[in-house]
Design a protein that fits this description.
Distance between the termini: 14 Å
Helix content: 10-25%
Oligomer: single chain
Structural class: alpha+beta
Radius of gyration: 13 Å
Largest sheet: 4 strands, antiparallel
Mean pLDDT: 95
Strand order of the largest sheet: 1-2-3-4
Number of strands: 4
Shape: globular
Strand content: 25-35%
Number of helices: 2
Order of helices and strands: EHHEEE
């Protein structure tokens, strides 16, 4: 299996918004993908990636491209679609 991270773009953003976690995982990943896409337009440090297995969209990733004041990098969100778990 080949896993590829692709930038969220005009071509795949809507498909990313259709990703969902299982109902029992909503306490871990409560914000939908569309929230992270919107927030990334206002938080300059957020980078978004669509996670693909071969050519199938399987998940979504948000990470901070720049370190915080303590030189740490963050992954605020990572999820795999309920159908791909």
């Amino acid at each position: 299996m080949v896993v590829v991270l692709k930038p969220v773009s005009n071509e795949n953003w809507y498909e990313c918004t259709q990703l969902k976690v299982k109902p029992e995982q909503l306490h871990i990943f409560p914000a939908p993908v569309v929230y992270w896409i919107a927030e990334s337009k206002y938080v300059n440090d957020f980078e978004l990636r669509a996670i693909y297995s071969e050519e199938v969209l399987v998940g979504f990733l948000v990470f901070c491209a720049n370190p915080d004041k303590d030189d740490n990098y963050w992954i605020p969100a990572i999820m795999i679609d309920e159908k791909q778990q």
